[in-house]
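Lab meeting prep.
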Amino acid sequence: MIVLGIDPGYAIVGWGLVEFKNNSFRPLRYGAITTEADTPFNRRLKIIYEDLNSIIDAFKPDAVSVEKLYFQTNQKTAIMVAEARGVILLCAESRNIPVFEYTPLQVKTAVTGYGKAKKPQVMEMTRRLLKLPAVPKPDDTADALAIAITHCQAAGSELRQKMFKEGNI
C-alpha cells in the first residue's frame, strides 16, 4: 500500500509518500509545496492544486491521509488553511483516491505510542520508523510522513481501524 500523507497549509504543504508492506515502512519520496508570501491567495491555491496533482499522477497512491484541522488562535489563518485543505481534498477526490483524516492526537499516538508526545519526539520517531539519516525539513514534510505512517498503522487491522474511528487511538 502506498500512502500519501499531507500536512495542509497555504504557505507550505508538507507531503510524504510511504510504502507499507509486510508490516514495514519504506519512504518513497517527500517534500513540500511552497508558495511565496507575496503571491495572491487564489494563485497560491492553484499552485498547490497543480503541484499536488503532479505528485499524485507520478506516484498513484492507494490512499491519502490528511491531518484534521484543529482550532487556531488566528481565525483568518485557520480559514485560509481550511481553503487550502479543500483544494487538497479535491485533488484526491477527483482521482477517486480514498482520503483518511487524523487528529494530531492520533498521529502522536500512532508514531510514538504516546498521545501527549512533543513535536521533536514525533519527528525523531518518524525518522527512525522510516530509517532516514535525518529528520526531513521543513517540519511540515516530517509531519506529512508521520501522517502517512498513521494511516499505515490504522489500516493494519480491523481492531485498529475501529479504535481510530472511535478516537481511542
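Slide two material, second protein:
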Amino acid sequence: MTYIYGRGPVIEALKNKKVDKLYLAASGGSIIKIKAMADENKVLIARVSKDKLDKMTEGKNHQGVCALISGFKYTDFDELLNDLREKEAAKLLILDKIEDPHNFGAIIRSSLYFAFDAIIIPRHGSVLVNDTVYKTSQGAVDSVKISVVNNLSQAIEKLKKESFWIYACHMNGEDIKDTTFDNKLALIIGNEAKGIAENLKKHADFIVKIPNYSDFDSLNASVAAAIVMYEVVR
C-alpha cells in the first residue's frame, strides 16, 4: 500500500479506481470534485488535520489531500510483447537505471503525453513507482504500462525478434533531426550521471543525439527524454 498526495495525482487515482481511503484536510475548489469522486466510488473519507497530513506525507506539498492506494501493478514483459506483436506501430521507452523519482515521474508524464505504449525498467538499480513518482507524474503513472525486467540486454534482444528497432540516446550519436525513426521502436534513455551502459549501446541499432548549441554538455534525463519523444512523433 502507498500514500499519494496532491490534488492532480489523487484525481487521476480516483479516475482509475485505485484509491482505498481518502484523507482530507482542506475544502472548496477541486476538493469538492475529489470528494464527489470518492463518494461515487464508495471510498472511505477521513477528515484530518493539516498537521496529520504533514506527518503522513513527511512535510511534502500535499495540497490538503492524501490517498491510500493499492500497490502499483506492473505489466509483465512477455504480456506486453504479446499485446504489441500484431501492431504495425509501437513506441517504447527503455530507462537504464533512472534513479531520481522526479525524473522518472516526469518521463512517465511525457510518455503519456506523446502516446508511447510502455516503459521498460530494470529490476535493480532503478527507482520504482512510489509516492514521489505519482506526484511528479501528476497521476499519469496510472495510465502508462510499466514493465520491470531482470536484464535489459535480454529484453532488447526479445524486442528485436519482434521487429523493434532500438535507438540509444547518446551525445556521440547521429543528430535526431537527421534520423528516420521506424514505426516499431524503442528509445534507450541513460542514467542521470553515467548515461547508457556500454553493453546496452552494443545492442542498439542506432545511436542518436540531441544537437547542442552551447558549451554546456548535458541535459536533465527527463528533459532529454521528452525532446527525443517529441522528435519521434514529429
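Talking points for slide two:
The radius of gyration is 19 Å.
The longest helix spans residues 101-113.
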